[in-house]
Amino acid sequence: MTEKISEAIEVLEQISQDSTVPKNVREKTQNAITALKEENIEIPIRISRSMQELDDLSEDQNVPIYTRTQILNVVTILESI
What contacts 24+ positions apart, CB below 8 Å, involve 15-18? Predict the structure, then answer.
């Protein structure tokens, strides 16, 4: 696993463990983590699946502003791979 993917997973894990974040947001971040950790799938596909979950979240009105910023940072990290 690349260093950037590990960094993205770390940020997503922080979001998924934050009790102030709505449950549906934590579930989607967990789905993004799962997608990134699937070792038997090629990296571009894992990134695409994860970004799909994160794109949904970036448009969700229930996402706190700080969390939205974290999500956009993760998207930026994944796009740079």
Answer: 15/67, 15/70, 15/71, 18/67
pLDDT tens sequence across 15-46? 999 999 999 999 999 999 999 999 999 999 99
Please write the tens of the pLDDT for every residue from 39-58: 999 999 999 999 999 999 98
Q: Does the reported pTM lie above 0.70?
A: yes
Q: Tell me which DSSP letter residue 48 carries.
A: H
CA-to-CA distance for 32 and 34, rounded, in angstroms?
5
Distance CA 50, CA 71 (A): 11
Report the number of distinct structural domains present in the chain: 1
Name the residue range of residue 69's domain.
3-79
- Write the CATH number for 61: 1.20.1440.50
Contact 47, 33 (CB under 8 A): no
